[in-house]
Every structure is written in structure tokens, then in C-alpha cells.
Amino acid sequence: MTAAASQVLDRVLVLEMVRVTEAAAIAASTLVGRGDEKAADAAAVEAMREALNSLYMDGTVVIGEGERDEAPMLFIGEKVGSAIGKGPKIDIALDPLEGTTICATAGPNSLAVLAIAEEGGLLNAPDVYMDKIAVGPGYPEGIIDLDKTPTENINAVAAAKGVPARDLIVCVLDRPRHEALIAELRKVGCGIMLIGDGDVAGVIATSDPETTVDVYMGSGGAPEGVLACAALRCVGGQFKGRLLFRNDDERGRAAKWGITDLDKQYDLSELAKGDCIFAATGVTDGSLLAGVKRKKGKMTTESVVMRASSGTVRWVKGEHRTD
């Protein structure tokens, strides 16, 4: 069901979100391949913060660079915008540089990412891991379930698609923690696309037939899960997520942000509610977007911006003079 249009979000123009992600991507692109993850991330954060503060809104970062004592800028709870206390109240989830290692090593699929919703529309997810599974649009509701085994989920998706399991492609982060998952998927016979980083792009890939990715599986950052859900709300698809806690400190952080049911399996609409806008700009070339290109006297960017209420997806190519 399409989300109802938000008059609050109408006051923050869709294309303004693109300008924010463009600013972060351009800043990070100056450090592509330089081997310095922290410098690239810091450049993107500073540029995104400056762009957000130019917008007429009363924005609150609900997913950001970390908690206040860990992040000097764009921390969880930080207020941004030029109309704090009087403008439209907006929740913001952001990752100024999705794939810091990718950017530092000039790999594919590094992005600047942003999602906004009305106040209370985005889950205030702590910076912990989340077990995730996602598929694109066109499947019966409830086709995926984290309480099922990977084999059961793959067989269910294959049956719904009308193909054998071996015809499916599953995207998985290439991490030691996924060894058992990868082994089970290989036993089922499906193809596996291993990615080194960037699971926001990995989840979104399930919604684009051009990527050939059918399913996303595995654990990754909970904040990235919320960002990916904002995108899937706009283009269609299903997502299930469950927070994973390694210690009492992480459980305490979840409680601090109002999460009481630590074993809950979240649905797409619980992670990103109502109307929302998602925007991303490529830093490096990838399956979703081209990266920033520098030519004599100009730079080019490629972005995508989506809105849940209209189901609209806009691809935006920008040309920026540098003289």
C-alpha cells in the first residue's frame, strides 16, 4: 500500500535531499583511493552537516555517526536545519559515507545516503548489528521470515518466482561470521554475490532486476538496515530485521533509545513508517549509481531520490562547475 503523502515533507523539497547527498559525495570523492577511511568519512560528514543546516526544517538525527560522546558531528540526537524550534519536525537517518573502506580503496558501491521522515517515522536504531533478509517487489506478503532457515527462505522465494533455487542470486557481506550461511546457501545451490562492504546498496539491489540479485541475507549494521528500508518503502519489497546484541552495553544502548523488546523481528513498515524520502549519490562507481567524475572545469554526479507516498524514483545527473 502506498504511504499517504506528508505535508510536512512537502516543505522539504525532494531535490534538496539530493543536494545534501551530492555535497557529501563530492567531499568524500577527493579522498577516493587514498587509504584514509577516517579522513574520507570526516569530509563527507562535514559537508553533509553544512548542507543540512542550510535547509528550512527542525531536523533531528535519529541514525547518524554514533552517540554524542563518540561522534563530534551528526551524532544521534543532533539538531540540524535553519529553523530549529519553528520549522517542520523531521527525523533524519544518514550515512555520509556508506562504505568507508570501499572509498579508501577505490572499490565499487560507495555512497552518500540520507533518508527523512516525519517525526517518529524512523526507528531510532542503536549502532549494533542486525540480522537481515530482504527481497524485491512482486512476492506474496510474508515470503521471508528470520524464524525460518536460510534454506526454507530460499526455497520459498524460488517457488514464488517459479524457478529452481539454483536460479536465485543471494547477496551476502563477505565476512567470517557468514561462513555457515554461505555454506548452507552453496548446499542449496543458489548463486552468491559476495560484497566487501555497503549493505545499503546490497539490500536495494534486490529491487532492481538489472542487478540480478534476488535476496539479501546476513547480518550488518542496524542503522544501515533502517536506511535500506526507507528505500524499499519507496520502490517496493520486503525486509525483516532483528537486532543482535553482543553484550550488556549494547543492550543498554538499545534501551536508551526506547527499544524494549530486544528479540523483536521488525518488518519494513516498522523500521520506516509513513511517508519517507530516500536519497543517495554515488561516490565510487557501483551497481546502483556512477561515482563522482572530475573533468576539466567540472564534476559530474549521479544520484537517485525516491518518495514512498508517490512511489516516484528520480535519477538525477548533476554537473558542477569547478572553475
Please render the helix and strand layout as text:
Layout lengths: L6 H4 L3 H16 L7 H16 L5 E6 L15 E2 L8 E10 L1 H6 L5 E8 L10 E7 L14 H12 L7 E5 L5 H10 L2 E5 L3 H6 L10 E7 H14 L2 E7 L3 H9 L8 E3 H4 L4 E7 L10 E3 L2 E10 L4 E10 L2
Parallel strand pairs: 1-3, 6-7, 6-8
Antiparallel strand pairs: 1-2, 3-4, 4-11, 5-8, 5-9, 9-10, 11-13, 12-13, 13-14
Helix pairs in contact: 2-3
Walk me through what this model shows.
There is one protein chain. With 323 residues, the chain is an alpha+beta fold. Helix content is 30%, strand content 28%. Strands 1, 2, 3, 4, 11, 12, 13 and 14 form an 8-stranded mixed β-sheet that branches. Strands 7-6-8-5-9-10 form a 6-stranded mixed β-sheet, sandwiched between helices. β13 and β14 (312-321) form a beta hairpin. α2 packs antiparallel against α3 (37-52).
Keywords for this structure?
single chain; 323 residues; alpha+beta; 8-stranded mixed β-sheet; 6-stranded mixed β-sheet
